[in-house]
Amino acid sequence: MDPFASLAEVYEAWYETPLGAYVIAEEERALKGLLPPGESLLEVGAGTGYWLRRLPYPQKVGVEPSEAMLAVGRKRAPEATWVRAWGEALPFPDGSFDVVLLFTALEFVEDVGRVLLEARRVLRPGGALVVGVLEALSPWAALYRRLGERGVLPWTQARFLAREDLKALLGPPEAEGEAVFLAPEAKPPYEEADLAGRRAGNRPALYLGRWR
């Protein structure tokens, strides 16, 4: 079953709401702060191509298993090369890319360890693996778990990783980033709510790490 089949066309609509716009801007800031320069980028689980449209790499490839998401991605990010494939079996030779990005994709794969092995395999020597996860111990993950329990797609098939899980799989990261400390029910001004979430000790909604 494809949990994204009915969601592809409206997947980015939340980013246009006031809270969604704040959240995605914070996530973009954190992501761009970790991405290194390079010629070629592979995004595994590229969805509708949101990040492929925004990241300044000369050569961009998006891998996406969902036919519905892939169709939308091809329309919205035609500058990228799109391939329908699964992260567990990337159809590329060893050492093909300068950067591999997994942005909130591990939540929906069958075999996290295999996906990470494949991502490293297709990196060139000295290349960078950048992984972003929805922090398992954050208020946002608690919300998504609840939605999954109620049968709301795509969260019915999601599982969540904490930063400790990634470090256990990949070792210490070269660099780290995080974003969105406010709660899902936060009211504006969002900057103040985000600072309050930091002071309260909330785990961020998004954790990012970069590995070589």
Structure characterization notes:
The protein has 212 residues and is an alpha/beta fold. Helix content is 32%, strand content 20%. It has a seven-stranded mixed β-sheet, with helices on both faces.
Mean pLDDT: 97
Order of helices and strands: HEEHEEHEHHEHE
Share in β-strands: 15-25%
Q: Kindly report the oligomeric state of this protein.
A: single chain
**Major pleated sheet:** 7 strands, mixed
Number of strands: 7
Class computed from helices, strands and strand pairing = alpha/beta
Cα end-to-end separation: 34 Å
Provide the spatial order of strands within the biggest beta sheet: 3-2-1-4-5-7-6
Helix content, binned percent: 25-40%
Which blocks of ≥5 consecutive residues have pLDDT under 50?
none
Task: Please compute the radius of gyration using only Cα atoms.
Answer: 16 Å
Shape: globular
Distinct helical segment count: 6
Task: Give a short synopsis of this structure.
With 212 residues, this protein is of the alpha/beta class. The protein is 32% helix and 20% strand.
